[in-house]
Every structure is written in C-alpha cells, then in structure tokens.
Amino acid sequence: MKLKYTFLLAFTLPLLIWIMADTKKKVEKKYTENHELKTVNPSLDWKGTPLDENGRFVNLFHPFESSFGDLLKWQTSKNPYKEAKENETRQLAVNFDPSIIQGKEDYLIWLGHATYLFRVQGKTFLTDPILMDNTFLKRDSPLPFPIEEMPHLDYILLSHNHRDHCDKASLKFLAEHHPQAKILTALGVSKVITSWTNPQEIEEAGWFQQYTKPDADIKITFVPSRHWSRRWLWDDNKSLWGGFYIQTEEKSIYFMGDSGKGPHFEDIKNTLGSPDYCLMGVGAFRPEWFMHQAHISPTYAIEAFNTLGGRFFIPMHYGTFDLSDEPRMEPWDILIENRDAIQGYLIEPVIGQNLLFPNLD
C-alpha cells in the first residue's frame, strides 16, 4: 500500500485506529459547556455542546461515517490528479509591507494555511499558528517575515488539536516570546498544550460560548464546525473543534477552522449575524467522497459563504501544506472559475498583504 502525502502520517494513521472502532454505533448524547462563560443560545432547545455516551465530543448534525474500507480505497487507488500535482509550479504570492504591523491601524494578514495575524480594536490576534516545519508538515509557501519579528500578541486562537492547526514547536516559541498572550480554544485542548505553553493563560469554550476578556468592545464566540479531533491513538474526540466569530462595533470576522458540510453555517448566521470577513477553508478536499466530512470543497465553501451572508470571501487552508490529492493551487482556480456564484467579494489572500478594507460602507 503506497503512502499518500503528509496527510497519512499526520492524520490518517490515527484515523485508521478510530475507524476500526465502531464509529457507526448509535450515539446517546449528553451535553457540556464551560459554566464560567456566557452562552449565546442558537435556539430555545439548545442544551450545550454534545457528547456521546463515552463522554467524547460529536458533531451537531453528522456522525463520522467513514469505514476502514474507505480509507483503504483512498490509499490504494490511483490519484487522477497526480500528474497535475507533479506539474504544479505555482506558489502562493507573497507581498509584505513591515509598516503594516508597525503602525496602529487594524489589519488582517495571512501567514499561510489557517494562520492569520490580525489586529482589531488595538488588540492583536494569531489563529492556529504553525510557523515552522515539523516532522509531519513541510511548508510550500514562506512566511512573510521571520517569526522573531512577530508583533506583540494579545490572543492566540486555537480551533482544534490537529497538527496542521495546533503545532507544538510554534506554541512553545510563542509561549517563550509572547507569554502575555492569552490562548482561546476549545474544550479539552488545554490538556494537549499546557505543558508547552506554561505559564500562559488558557480559556476553553464550548460551541456558541463567548470568552471572557478585559476588552468590552470585542466579542469572541466559539462556533461549531463539522470535524473531529485526535493527536494520538487513544484520544479521539476528547477535545472539541470549531471556529471563531470576532465582533466589534465596526466589523466582524468569521474564522472557520476546519469543517465539512452542514447546517451549522446557517446556525452561526442566525445566532450571530452575517460576518463582514469570512476566512473559509477551501483545500485538502480531494478525494471529495472521503474528505467531505472534514474539509469542504471550494464550491461548497462558496455555498457556505452565501449561507452566512458574508461580505468578503477570503480563502485559506490551501497552498502551504500537501495534505491531500489536489494540486497546490487548484482550490484558487476553482474559486476563480465560480466567482460569479459568490454573493460577495472574493479576495485573493496574498501572504503578508493587508486584507482589511478601511471603509465597509
């Protein structure tokens, strides 16, 4: 059996053990939350973040239904995009002006994959930092500046514990150089990262819960996605996954994290409103029959964006790491081909470039 790309080592081997367990069994749901946080109830019958009968997190609408046979089929089948992958020479564009992070104005800068650096209301945020190569992941796109030049950070947002979103080396570096930064993440993630980040403050939230902050002008809500979690062979779904919705009086930013298809996009809109900026995952989607439960395709990302009613569509989760069957830049090509279907503005996420617009009127 041939090994396909980094995805196999980083994610699929643990997934194999999980799938060999009976993941299709009937789930009797329980519910949990962080009782110290405010919950923005999406409905009158909202009970909290669901758990299965073993106390492990589950998706709101879709159980994970892949089988070992599905995994074997993917790993042993021919990749119809192999030649296109091998012939892909394009890389993500990089254009960085250091004055952006040295000034005092708001900005939103893509650092590659799911890592965004942004400032709103004078506070600086970093999402899902993976700032260097590790055992499993090698960058195909450069950072726009050395990590030693990272500006002062107030918050680090971690969407879930997968290794392309929650990187030990990056978090240890940030803990050493930005110990003041508060980490906002999902229920259960602190057990993974505490030994790397001590003494940083960590706050965990369930779905539709708002983090506590000294900044009354910023609301940060942890929102659902359709995904799963695992770092080792024994910790499947012991920690939660999701995205972030950041709101100020002037603007709102939705960071999707990783997600498959689902009605949760509509729930987010109905609960928190339509976001101005939607940072949407569009990569690691082929083969779709296997990946759709964890990563939406570019075309479905458009549908999800339209459901959210967003203003600016900013794609991510492509071009930096080789995680699946599609060529590096195919997700962007598909978005361009279908841009007329986008009920908003498609923004090319050039690495290092400020993607915020000063006037949203």
TrEMBL record:
GO cellular component: cytoplasm
Ranges in coiled-coil conformation: none
GO molecular function, one term: hydrolase activity
Pfam families xrefs: Lactamase_B_2 (PF12706)
Keywords: Hydrolase
Residues annotated as domain Metallo-beta-lactamase: 125-318
PANTHER family the UniProt entry points to: N-ACYL-PHOSPHATIDYLETHANOLAMINE-HYDROLYZING PHOSPHOLIPASE D
Protein name listed in UniProt: Zn-dependent hydrolase
